[in-house]
Design brief:
Blueprint (H helix, E strand, L loop, with lengths): L6 E6 L7 H14 L3 E5 L2 H6 L3 E4 L26 H13 L4 E6 L1 H12 L3 E6 L15 H21 L3 E6 L6 H9 L4 E3 L8 H13 L5 E6 L5 H12 L3 E5 L11 H19 L5 E6 L2 E6 H6 L6 H9 L3
Parallel strand pairs: 1-2, 1-4, 4-5, 5-10, 6-8, 6-9, 7-8
Antiparallel strand pairs: 2-3, 10-11
Helix pairs in contact: 1-9, 5-6, 7-8
The structure holds adenosine-5'-diphosphate (ADP) and 6-O-phosphono-beta-D-fructofuranose (F6P).
Length: about 325
């Protein structure tokens, strides 16, 4: 198919994720290699509406593949949720000659990308979120780095928890998705994992398990609690009062979202960035790049957004067996 695209715009939107810079670099350099111009849009859709648009060349993305965060900055933008905001965004793209747009972000950002696509801007989404909560893909940029960061931090808390024979509640990110909690729960050998998708609020059951484990000679009890369940500090106080076992809460917070991306995040993000450009060159629009069954694939954004995802029941059950 003829290459109708002349200028590609790129933006990052929603929560940042380690590996976004690798994707930006891949988009810029692949586009240049295909003979296209590239414009960076700062601060997501907010920057688009403010026309914060810069020309990018190969040197604009030097020395960033190893850095967390996003050199384009990111933001959330209420105005872009409105039809007026979306029309204005499309007009600004046209004014700057942007006829293809790559949006790196989560489902919310893809909703915005879909709107721009309907308004005549060829748009491709790349999944970027540490939460892994995008249904059409088994990989999202930043999850691998975030779980490794959290895993290392939890190992450290575990050392002191064991020395003091305490119970520790460690809260990891994931407002509505428990993937970080589940993976860390398995990787760190946690006695309990509280997931927004599964936790039924049975705190007495949790307390009974802590007492039971102590009777069986366990010197600590690690609970990985997802942000979406929350209340770690008050839960720790109630557990200590009910069990007599000293209990501490640690909220890992935003340290999980920063740091040097892992090899996996650098490589997958790079391939996805290149693929997004090549899809635009093939004349495609309203697609989202994914990774399924060992391959990089792409889906219609509307179909991708309609897909459902849940944590694996099998993995959740196994995580319980492994700490008996
Ligand atoms: P994520 O992309 O990580 O899911 P958000 O849900 O915060 O993050 O969405 C990022 C931005 O995408 C929002 O601030 C908004 O500008 C835009 N957005 C979200 N939902 C829509 C929507 N339904 N229509 C248009 N734009 C949207
Ligand atoms: O990036 C995803 C995420 O980390 C969620 O798990 C979390 O709830 C949210 O972002 C918090 O984002 P912020 O602090 O930027 O509002």
């Amino acid at each position: 198919m003829a290459n109708a695209i002349k200028t590609i715009g790129i933006l990052t939107s929603g929560g940042d994720a380690p590996g976004m810079n690798a994707a930006i670099r891949a988009v810029v350099r692949t586009a240049l290699a295909r003979g296209l111009n590239v414009k960076g849009i700062m601060r997501g859709y907010a920057g688009l509406l403010k026309e914060e648009i810069i020309d990018m060349d190969s040197r604009s993305v030097s020395d960033i593949i190893q850095r967390g965060g996003t050199i384009l900055y990111t933001a959330r933008c209420e105005e872009f949720r409105t039809e007026e905001g979306q029309r204005k965004g499309a007009e600004i793209c046209k004014k700057h000659g942007i006829d293809g747009l790559v949006v790196i972000g989560g489902d919310g950002s893809f909703n915005g990308a879909c709107k721009l696509s309907n308004l005549g801007i060829n748009t491709i989404g790349i999944p970027g979120t540490i939460d892994l909560d995008i249904a059409c893909t088994e990989y999202t940029i930043g999850f691998d780095t975030a779980v490794n960061t959290a895993m290392e931090a939890i190992d450290k808390v575990r050392d002191t928890s064991t020395s003091h024979e305490r119970c520790s509640i460690i809260e990891v990110m994931g407002r509505s998705a428990g993937y970080i909690a589940l993976w860390c729960g398995i990787a760190n050998g946690a006695e309990d994992i509280l997931l927004p998708e599964r936790y039924d609020g049975d705190e007495q059951g949790l307390i009974n398990r802590i007492i039971e484990h102590r009777k069986r000679g366990k010197s600590h009890h690690i609970i990985i609690n997802a942000e979406g369940v929350g209340h770690s500090t008050s839960m720790a106080k109630r557990i200590e009062a009910a069990t007599g076992i000293e209990t501490r809460a640690t909220i890992l917070g935003h340290m999980q979202r920063g740091g040097r991306p892992t090899c996996k995040d650098r490589v997958y993000a790079s391939i996805m960035g290149a693929k997004a450009v090549d899809l635009l060159c093939e004349g495609k629009s309203n697609r989202v790049v994914g990774y399924k069954h060992g391959d990089y694939v792409d889906f219609d954004i509307n179909e991708a957004l309609a897909m459902q995802k849940d944590v694996s029941e099998y993995q959740y059950e196994i995580s319980k067996i492994l700490v008996r």
